[in-house]
Design a protein that fits this description.
Layout (H helix, E strand, L loop, with lengths): L19 E4 L4 E4 L5 E6 L10 H19 L3 E8 L4 H10 L3 H18 L7 E4 H17 L3 E4 L2 E4 L15 H10 L16 E5 L15 E3 L1 H12 L4 E7 L3 H16 L5 E7 L2 E3 L2 E2 L10 H6 L4 H9 L7 E2 L2 H18 L8 H12 L4 H17 L7 H13 L4
Parallel strand pairs: 3-4, 3-10, 4-5, 10-11, 12-14
Antiparallel strand pairs: 1-2, 6-7, 7-8, 8-9, 12-13
Helix pairs in contact: 4-6, 6-7, 9-10, 10-12, 11-12, 11-13
């Protein structure tokens, strides 16, 4: 599966700093010090209704991570999956009377278009669950050999008790885990499971549903968590720098995935930092496909909204915050974009050297994009009120805003 084209990232004078970011597992800020190549895995979409503003906010957050690392002169090895076979996708295809493969391809293509428009830097490896199945099957077989998996009516489950570090990502108690498991794709009430929290590794073939040859597992399809584990281990290995996604993925998805990988490899942890973006609401409720309260990036673009304004609207909120999308949020972003473009259109201006460092400082402090925007606002205000003499300043601001914030002026 191919990703989307990368926009050029301008080079800036000087060099960025190491990123301090909030780690869900420890509950505090950690300073990441990758080697020459920084490694990040971000969980991708289930392509049955893409791309809403909540998706865009998440991928925008991890795009900032990439940009901070690139500014330190590191290379970035970024991997993202596409869950292109799963119950919600099959249910939507049946509801709409369309082929599930065609639906997945259509929505994935739309997602690519939206990411390109928003100038989100693409992953080096963009892998679908279906194409990952040949690598998933041996991992499930290995977990069975290790005694960490068991069969229940043809389905294969992972035993969470096989991982001594289970629970170390989300730090939730058993009662909270059970509630979230039921809400987020698990089956804690299924009779016969060793532990209600045990997640499915391999679902035996169901009549009328797609299935693949699973060798000793029989025909079926992979569970949700083992999909990402197989892709991450194949392309990044253990101990990569950041595991990212929305905050609703901390449990069960990232918790279960970490346990799968840790049992398979005997190493801990799977990732050095577990980083989670907040949820975006609309009309007082979390924006979600199940509720249908969605604002789509593609619809905004069709309505003529500049993608740079959409991105500024996202950047106006700290990535970990839960916030609400409103018409006012978008209008404010459009007005800000207009002020910035007017400021850089002048032939000279006040020096922008300090501004570049302010943006860098803000982003390396847990991706504080609102502080970075405020710094650019201050420069734009000075541009209006001061007689600038630096002919290079508007160009410096344009390149810095592009390189570090992904906004094209």
């Amino acid at each position: 599966m191919h990703a989307w084209p990368a926009s050029e990232v301008p080079a800036l004078p000087g060099q960025g700093r190491d990123l301090r970011i909030h780690d869900t597992a420890t509950g505090g800020l950690v300073t990441l010090d990758p080697g020459p190549v920084a490694r990040i895995y971000v969980c991708g979409i289930t392509p049955y209704d893409a791309t809403h503003i909540g998706h865009a906010a998440t991928y925008n957050a991890f795009d900032l991570v990439q940009r901070v690392w690139l500014d330190t002169k590191r290379q970035v090895h970024y991997v993202q999956n596409v869950t292109d076979v799963d119950d919600p996708l099959l249910e939507r295809a049946e509801r709409d009377g369309v082929d599930w493969v065609a639906l997945a391809e259509k929505e994935t293509a739309l997602f690519r278009e939206d990411m390109t428009a928003l100038r989100i830097l693409p992953p080096q490896h963009y892998i679908g669950a279906v194409e990952a199945i040949p690598g998933i099957v041996p991992l499930v077989e290995r977990l069975r050999e290790l005694g960490a998996a068991y069969e229940l009516e043809g389905d294969i489950y992972f035993s969470v008790e096989s991982d001594a570090n289970f629970g170390s990502v989300s730090n939730l108690d058993a009662a909270a885990m059970r509630l979230l498991s039921a809400e987020r794709g698990g089956d804690p009430d299924r009779p016969g499971k060793k532990n209600p929290l045990d997640p499915m590794l391999w679902m035996a073939a169901r009549e009328g549903e797609p299935s693949w040859d699973g060798a000793s597992l029989g025909r079926g399809r992979p569970g949700w968590h083992i999909e990402c584990v197989a892709i991450a281990l194949d392309h990044l290995g253990m101990g990569f720098d950041v595991q990212g996604g929305g905050s609703d993925l901390a449990f069960p998805h990232h918790e279960m995935g970490a346990s799968h990988a840790q049992v398979l490899t005997g190493e801990f942890p799977m990732a050095k930092a577990y980083v989670h973006a907040g949820m975006v609401a609309l009309h007082g409720a979390k924006m979600s496909k199940s509720k249908g309260n969605l604002v789509f990036v593609s619809q905004l673009r069709r309505d003529g909204v500049d993608p740079a304004a959409i991105r500024l609207a996202l950047l106006g909120h700290h990535y970990r915050a839960d916030w609400e999308w409103t018409d006012e949020v978008l209008q404010d972003a459009m007005a800000r974009l207009g002020r910035w473009r007017a400021a850089v259109s002048r032939p000279d201006g006040p020096s922008a050297d300090a501004l570049v460092e302010e943006i860098r400082e803000a982003l390396t402090n847990d991706l504080d994009a609102p502080a970075a925007l405020a710094a650019v606002d201050r420069w734009a205000e000075r541009q209006e009120t001061e007689d600038g003499t630096d002919t290079g300043a508007p160009g410096v601001v344009t390149r810095a805003v592009d390189a570090l914030l992904g906004v094209a002026l």
